[in-house]
Design a protein that fits this description.
With about 250 residues, the chain is mainly α. About 35% of the residues lie in helices and about 5% in strands. The longest helix has 22 residues. The mean pLDDT is about 95.
Length: about 250
């Protein structure tokens, strides 16, 4: 995907010098900020799954496009997991303040296009609030908050669940992706499945799952499927972002 402007190597914000940042932003006034969580992912996966996924996709997009990527914000809005040990959550208000502060400092460095790339479902609503506050605060800024799977149809995601919406968690999809991205941290001998059911409400995870997982066929997860899914996430997101950062500003009509 070198035709999208990248060198094949991710541009990591924190590894650049201050003068290098200035030169880079004069060429590409955009940045990718990955978000995730530190939260339980059942008995078979580590707490770092969500930020591992968003950061891996973000680095792939950066390598393909040349758009710099920040180190991920690893803590998210995770209180809806309940009392499972290990989870660390920010209050939505705290999360909003963190995102706003990061964006304000990026703005001071010259960034005018912000891709808030999310890897954790419960961050979604706060990130949309952040995007609304950012686009109404600045006249010369463009912002998009989205999940790393958002550039291809949800029906194409092989998640092995029928219902659940935000409750799909530590499932066949996430386990397959983690087996590809960071397999040493996955303990498949401890994997359990949870049959999903239809519900109007979105419950706390501990109200519907003893194990902390939500989704069937988790023991069938595999790295080959994870590679297909993650590669598709990177390619579709990279093509979308490469076009987005060069998109003309609209003329009011």
């Amino acid at each position: 995907m070198n035709e999208l402007g990248g060198t094949g190597k991710p541009v990591l914000w924190e590894e650049l010098t201050s003068p290098e940042i200035e030169e880079l932003i004069n060429r590409i006034n955009a940045a990718i900020v990955p978000f995730g969580a530190v939260e339980q992912h059942g008995p078979h996966m580590p707490l770092c799954v969500d930020w591992n996924m968003s950061y891996h996709v973000a680095q792939g997009v950066s390598a393909a496009t040349g758009v710099p990527v920040l180190h991920p914000v690893i803590y998210g809005v995770s209180a809806s997991h309940g009392d499972f040990p290990g989870t660390i959550s920010l209050r939505p208000e705290t999360f909003l303040a963190v995102v706003e502060d990061i964006v304000n400092w990026l703005y001071h460095s010259g960034v005018r296009q912000f891709i808030l790339l999310n890897g954790h479902a419960w961050n979604g609503a706060p990130l949309q609030v952040c995007a609304e506050k950012i686009r109404t605060r600045y006249d010369d800024v463009r912002v998009r908050a989205l999940d790393y799977v958002d550039m291809y149809p949800p029906s194409e995601i092989d998640g092995r669940y029928t219902y659940g919406r935000l409750l799909a968690h530590a499932n066949y999809f996430e386990t397959s992706c983690m087996l590809y991205v960071n397999p040493d941290l996955v303990k498949m001998d401890r994997a359990t499945s949870k049959q999903d059911f239809d519900s109007f409400w979105d419950y706390r995870t501990d109200q519907v799952s003893i194990s902390g997982v939500w989704g069937r066929d988790i023991t069938e997860a595999n790295a080959e499927n994870g590679e297909r899914e993650i590669s598709r996430c990177i390619e579709t997101m990279a093509r979308a972002i490469a076009a987005a950062v060069n998109e003309p500003w609209p003329e009011p009509s």
